[in-house]
Write a structure and sequence with these properties.
The protein is built from 24 helices and 14 strands. It is an alpha+beta fold. It has three domains: 137 residues; 436 residues, no CATH class; 26 residues. The strands form six sheets. Strands 4-5-3-6 form a four-stranded antiparallel sheet, sandwiched between helices. A hairpin with a 3-residue loop joins β11 and β12. α10 runs antiparallel to α19, α10 runs parallel beside α23 and α12 packs antiparallel against α13.
Length: 768
Amino acid sequence: MAPGQRSPPGCGLRAGVAVPPSGVSAGGDDNFQILVESEGDHLPLMEMGSCKLEASNQWDCVLVADLQTQKIQKQVQRQQQFLEKLESNGFHFKIIKDQKKVFFGIRADSGIFDLYRTLLMKPEDPHQHPVPATTRIRIVSFVVNNKRKLGETFEDLVKDGVFETMFPLHEGEEDLKRKWARWRNMFRKQPINDIRNYFGEKVALYFAWLGWYTYMLVPAALVGLVVFLSGFALFDSSQISKEICSAYNIFLCPLSDYSRKYHRLSEMCAFAKLTHLFDNEGTVMFAIFMALWATVFLEIWKRKRARVVLTWNLYGWDEEEEEMALELINYPDYKLIKHHHSYLSSTIILIMSLFMICFMIGMAHVLVVYRVLAAALFSSFLKEQVITVVVATGAVVHYVIIVIMTKVNKYVALKLCDFEDPRTFSERESKFTVKFFTLQFFAHFSSLIYIAFILGRINGHPGKSTRLAGLWRLEECHLSGCMMDLFIQMAIIMGLKQTLSNCVEYLKPWLAHKYRLMRANEHQPESKDPELEAWQRNYYLNPVNTFSLFDEFMEMMIQYGFTTIFVAAFPLAPLLALFSNIVEIRLDAIKMVRLQRRLVPRKAKDIGTWLQVLETIGVLAVIANGMVIAFTSEFIPRIVYTYHYGPCRKYQNFTDDCLQGYVNHSLSVFRTKDFQDHGRIVGQENVTHCRYRDYRNEDDYNFSKEFWFILSIRLAFVILFEHVALCIKLIAAWFVPDVPQSVKNKVLEEKYQKLQEKMCFISRSTDV
């Protein structure tokens, strides 16, 4: 209690401290009473919960302990000591119990917030606004959770079972429930200011960013859909598809040991047409468009953020200054913790990070092994469909690996952060973000990188193939090309993540909340005390932690990576992301307002390190899409054939399609007699030559001059594409300023007015 402030009637100085009566052990029962220290002796005053300090809507947070702890004297003493220390810092508290739990209402004295204003607001600022509820909760949560001199932290007490949890109360959320946290509001504008006033700036900026990201997905989804559907317009008119569908006399070499049969090229007719849907001339333009889109999206978001934080009077807010102020409020003798750096710890962290990245890459090889073994296993009963089944099940296995490795990556990233010993919580969060995202990136994209750039390229050639452990032949790309494999992998992984993740993200907390309510109703009657009922209702909501909002950001960053990095292979990715985000916004709103305890509000003026993550993804997207177009798709070989080998180059007056003869040119020839087990292949009697996708000589099976020429064009295209796309990104970033001129002018006006006020003050002082 603040100095000079008297206790409410009927309450002594230590209002609500749970201690056993004199001569009575702390292992009591329902007759356990509260003792209040008055100016005289210790007197039994009343049953728990009778001493009311303030109205229920003025409690900043609630601590919870199991009723069984009240039977252990040592635990009760530790509770008492902790509450006494809080009281010495200017806190009031109240205790209410039910059949199973003990609830401690905590409220900070106004003097704490006056000190906060004194430390962080300018002395000449004439506006003394009331402290908002989000600031009250943030300060109280910081003081309760952080260590004081010679005292235990709340986390220590939770680990020892003295307390169970702490949470701020959901109060006044009905307006958010009505306007925001309903499925019927799915297409309504989000009330960002209301979200900020209830959950704080950090959460509000997350939803503002997510809303803008979803809005910007609309043009990307439309362009991607047009690119995909344009393939349907050429579904039957593509020259390559026509040649494949009519190639009855061309036989393909067996792709694997389990496929002991020569297939006619015409059997690939349907797959060739499907591949053309996402591997056509529009793919290049769409990849460049997405590079420009990512830049414009980020630049306009920076402008929107600047306007929002100016409206919230946070444009000049300093996070480090706020954290130091909270430390001084918590402990006036706080000594500044300075920045430090250790080359030894940095080296160890780098080595451990590289080890984990190599481990992630190794997990991609697990997928390779699975696909090889699954192909051998399924070949006995799936026959012709074995390749498609292996690709599809491989994607599902990859998704399961992602789910498992996410938990491992979080644990490793936390341990690396603890080893680095960051100075503040914000610095720790930033370092953890970088480490965790790096590990998650390799966990999610390692198999896609393998399929896009390695699959089918280290397999040798028919008759001399590379084998796993000398036994199993490495898998090849799909007969219609590696783009089909990459498309299927992207579609399955992204589809599973968007559907299953959203379902689990909603159903898990919903079912958990219902289960907690059911268990609570079974063991105790309905409370007649409205205050206790409100505390119980909040307690039986699902718990939250420091990672609750972090996990939402991480999920969106991974989705953003899928939407941009390999979008050249999957033009429908922005459309899937758009549908998912429309649901995600409302799902997160319902979860935060209706199913979870209230998050501790945090102040922020931007989305922090996540902005650098988005910019990094944008650069990676340019590199990856350029390499997909150059090395995975058939775009470069088609262009080279059109202008160097095709009939249009040889015959200037050629009027038919310039790709005529491309299929025959792109398939190498293998003499079937060179197979070691030629006699065991079905249909070998009538086949003297078979074809396979590669550029090799017919006599010695070495790479042909066409291979090296096309490879040089591929490399040149990657360099050209990346430079053009990056130049477009830089021009777009320059063309759209990060901060609007109106915001800059507003900040200038405020600085000018403050200087004028100081000049007037100096002039008056001089005159006197």
